[in-house]
Amino acid sequence: MVIHPDLFEVPGRTLGQVMTGFARTQVRGTENRWHSHEEGQLFHVIHGAAAVDTELGTFHAPPERALWIPPKVAHHARYLSETEIRFLYVSPEAASALPDRPQVIQVTQLLRELILEFMSFGRGETQDGPAARIAAVILDQLKVLPAAPLQLPMPKEKRLRTVCERIVRCPADIPPLTAAAEACATSVRSFERRMKSETGLSYRTWCRQVKLFRALEMLAEGSGVSEVSHRLGYEGPSAFVATFKKAFGVTPGRYFT
């Protein structure tokens, strides 16, 4: 499917349409500044991988996944490899019927074809006619597709967030539960209760998610399974592969294909 030349140009600040497309290829290592949009934004990764940081946590978007970001949610994207990406900007009025929190979704074959078809129209052709009808079906799909487990939620409480940020920076050196609780000046039971309340995950599960997210980034950057397992403190490559497959349903070698 050919992308209309209009869509390689950055869209204007005031879009004035229900949906507007934008196509771009980002170079590996590219990062953009923290920013937000008046519109909702859908990142659809065709090839490559991106990690998007928000105040609510980090989201990972590998190939054939898409990240939905509601209007006015500040975010910062990091492209882990050369990444071909399609953006759909959704008007605030239309976005109000979609999830009010960021989430990663699996891109079905139907949604993928709808997005590609929409991207074949120029921006002046999307107010009505076939493009407008395609946009309406895309919005319907976004309302019903389930979220994928590709989020690392971050707590807001200051001391707890400090502990979590330290773990994110060095996931190979995760402090024991008792040490983490002590750093927050609280009992183990209170720490676990607060962690669950703020992130929806237990401390152990959250730490496992940190390692898996860092593994995804390293794999996207070209690291091998043995290197990833060693640097992240797994008992060995087989232990890492088993943990990865349990979380994502496929082995590391097949994930990006």
TrEMBL record:
Start and end residues of each HTH araC/xylS-type domain: 157-257
Family matches, as InterPro entries: AraC-bd, Homeodomain-like_sf, HTH_AraC, HTH_AraC-typ_CS, RmlC-like_jellyroll, RmlC_Cupin_sf, Tscrpt_reg_AraC-type_HTH
SUPFAM superfamilies: Homeodomain-like, RmlC-like cupins
Keywords: Activator, DNA-binding, Transcription, Transcription regulation
Highest taxon of the lineage: Bacteria
GO terms of molecular function: DNA-binding transcription factor activity; sequence-specific DNA binding
Full protein name: AraC family transcriptional regulator
Species this chain originates from: Roseibium polysiphoniae
